[in-house]
Design brief:
The complex is a heterotetramer, with two copies of chain A (234 residues) and two copies of chain B (223 residues). Chain A has 234 residues and is of the alpha/beta class. Chain A has five helices and 13 strands. The chains are: A alpha/beta (234), B alpha/beta (223).
Chain lengths: 234, 223, 234, 223
């Protein structure tokens, strides 16, 4: 193991950790925000195929400077690329893939997740702004595995893993795994099971930051990403 | 001889009536029929219902229609994209109505109309705020909501190439909503970068078959 | 008018007559049997686009000898061709076109048609053979205009235009126009209206071969196709 | 490295269980996975439900499976096509069940499953003998029947080209049911004429994206 900090993970480290669970041959949709970063941290030599809701299967990394193509955008409307073997489909087919269970993994951001895997990630009901749902609800019901990346607590330090979500739901009982800046937690029929914690973290400390009860997996591991994860070459 | 090409963008949007439902393709700024939207602004139709993924950007295209008070309602999945100040202003002024739909539900409801079906059950939004008021049904142990077909009076489409029958092809991710919206309206109007001879497009790779297209206008752009 | 026989029309003449009503730019599906022949009799210079349920839009005539392509078959599994501007779609899209009202005309064969436009063309309920429906029910509900080509009477001379169909229905209230070997008849809200009759035919004679009451259109015409309609060059 | 190509047709159909629902593509004799059907015969699975447009021809492929008593049920639109004597014999002997569906309903029900939906209302067959026993609903003044999603345990597909990810292209009208069936099964197995390098297929013109494909076997044929 390389030198480790006891600090909570940063965004890149959270994305790196989630990327390690993507398997060779997986078809994966990455939500806007931290999930998008995960594409860069898939281990070298492992082929993972990324889906973009606007109609790309086989999305590649950001374009190199000077090679930008205005006809290539991702779900976040950022410029992107296509890998060899990728293709284009129309919007209804892109969402057929999402809703129909064809994706192996949907990696999403979240405001809150409940003990039973309820997901809230589409609206905070701010009355000053119109709500926007995008593909969040589609992504939350369709993939074979729904996984979430999020900070363990709010900016005020309040738990975001709750007995019941306080924000409107995106979908019920859908989240299977949560990657936070402190831990990796599985949502199981028997409750939340902690698989990994950062160095120095204890179940007691983690529980204090988490509303529903946590169990520690007997074979739990230290969550120790590289200090500065190396992004894959384009 | 069939020739769906019209000479001007004004010809392309002629006859759009007040109160029409207009399907506007594109995702972000890609594959959006901005020139037809400006032509529709000139044309002057009012009280429009717009179906789109986003709610317009800057001061052109859909945003301009909204700023000019032509839009009564927007059906979209994500209004908060880019500089959506025109929409935001109208939304706060309550001068337009917003119907928020899950993104995949928008295209699937349009395909449903295109396919001559009466509606479908979807698990998306079941049990959520966006599913409230919709008929629900448990199917194979899973809650579904009933979604109705969504039809456009007009579809505004952006394609790359067309022939005189109206066969269309697109460039990369500019395809997005275009093929689905082209199927789902009574009148499908297309702005294209260029016309090609009939038979020049590969019959294996035409994305939108001519049967869905009514009018084509060349607006230049990428050759 | 060229020389005319007072004989009932033959298959080619019935197909010729139906073809005259196909307009420039019409998208048309031709059912198996006599309707298929209509493609050959579209007036020269008129562009009509033919749809085949297996996934062809822009179907052309039969291939010339030596130019057969085993990958090109029509709904009747006969070899066919593609015209310039034609394209291929998958089966669900081919039937989206049918069911969704995208075809201007569906020209079908029939066993029976009722006064209200009910169509029976899929089964005679012969117990010795399995029933087959193919695309008949889809075609009968979807096109903007459903038209039928059929012999006016059965082999036994019994009417096939009936008050109510005796065979199982394909679809109710769908047929708008009937081309027979004796007449052209429109199905209207006010009943069956005879638009054309072959030379020598009278409304009385035609009525005797037709179960529901017929009206003669004030501007009815003589139904007089060429003796041997000339097929369009491939 | 992802490589969905398997070496033999036996590998391609390995693991198909008794009682499986098998989607068999093709229309008439075109685009039919005859070699995979023969391999499935060798493999020996029994009590199969076959979903196909027709019911087999001559003494090979689907007809051979039927003659050998492997087929418990056929879901199709038109069994009476070509030399369907194998089916006819079994039908008259009541050794298999026939479920007759309108042709478009077959592909739409499979697409419905592929799209993760719970069913749809269709005007096709409403008020007819084939609509009997189905839930009906009047929508916009028109009678509809409720149709459920139709899922395959296995889909047998015939394509022209594939790459190692499983992207597929077809030749002309041999496309027919193949792309829809490829989307609608738990296990999608493809016989192809040839493999091409990854990236060799035009990304605008791949008809079946790799996500729907599990196994590919080369059986030669048209280059």
């Amino acid at each position: 193991m390389t030198s480790q900090s006891h600090e909570p993970l940063n965004r890149e480290q959270m994305a790196w950790r989630a990327a390690q669970d993507l398997k060779e041959g997986d078809y994966v949709n990455l939500g806007i925000g931290i999930p998008t970063l995960a594409a860069s941290y898939v281990p070298p030599g492992r082929e993972v195929i990324f889906h973009s809701e606007n109609g790309i299967l086989g999305m590649g990394p950001k374009p190199e400077p000077g090679k930008e193509d205005p006809y290539m955008v991702d779900a976040g409307k950022n410029l992107t690329t296509l890998v060899a073997g990728g293709c284009f489909v129309h919007h209804a087919d892109a969402f057929l893939m999402i809703r129909g269970g064809h994706l192996d993994v949907s990696l999403l951001g979240a405001f809150e997740v409940s003990a039973s895997g309820d997901l809230a990630n589409w609206t905070t009901e701010d009355p000053a702004f119109p709500p926007g749902v995008g593909g969040a609800m589609d992504l939350a019901v369709g993939a074979r595995a729904i996984r979430v990346i999020m900070e363990h607590t709010s900016k005020k330090g309040e738990p975001r893993i709750l007995k019941a979500c306080t924000y409107p739901l995106t979908a019920a009982n859908c989240v299977k795994r949560i990657y936070t800046n402190l831990a990796v937690i599985d949502v199981t029929p028997k409750g939340l099971v902690v698989l990994e914690m950062i160095p120095g973290m204890t179940l007691e400390k983690l529980q204090a930051l988490t509303e529903p009860p946590l169990q520690l997996a007997p074979d739990w591991k230290v969550l120790a990403p590289p200090v500065a994860p190396k992004a894959r070459a384009a | 001889m069939i020739d769906k090409q019209v000479k001007t963008t004004a010809d392309a949007v002629a006859g759009v009536r007040d109160g029409s439902t207009v399907l506007v393709a594109g995702f972000g700024a890609v594959g959006v029929p901005d020139i037809l939207l400006d032509a529709l602004h000139e044309q002057g139709a009012r009280e429009l219902t717009i179906v789109a993924n986003n709610s317009g950007n800057g001061d052109y295209g859909l945003a301009r229609l909204i700023s000019s008070g032509r839009v009564a309602k927007v059906i979209c999945s994500f209004p908060r994209s880019g500089d959506y100040s025109a929409f935001l202003h109208a939304y706060r002024a309550k001068s337009l109505e917003l119907e928020l739909l899950p993104q995949g539900t928008i295209s699937e409801r349009m395909r449903c109309h295109a396919a001559g079906l009466g509606g479908f059950f979807s698990p998306v939004s079941a049990g959520t705020k966006l599913g409230e008021g919709k008929e629900t049904r448990e199917i194979d142990g899973r809650l579904h909501v009933f979604e109705k077909p969504l039809k456009g009076d007009v579809a505004l489409i952006k394609a790359n190439k067309a022939d005189r029958w109206g066969n269309l092809s697109y460039i990369k991710s500019a395809r997005n909503f275009n093929p689905v919206m082209a199927m789902a309206a009574d009148l499908t109007v297309v702005e294209v970068d260029q016309m090609v001879e009939l038979g020049e497009m590969n019959p294996e790779t035409i994305v939108t078959p001519s049967i869905f297209v009514d009018r084509v206008v060349v607006v230049g752009g990428k050759a």
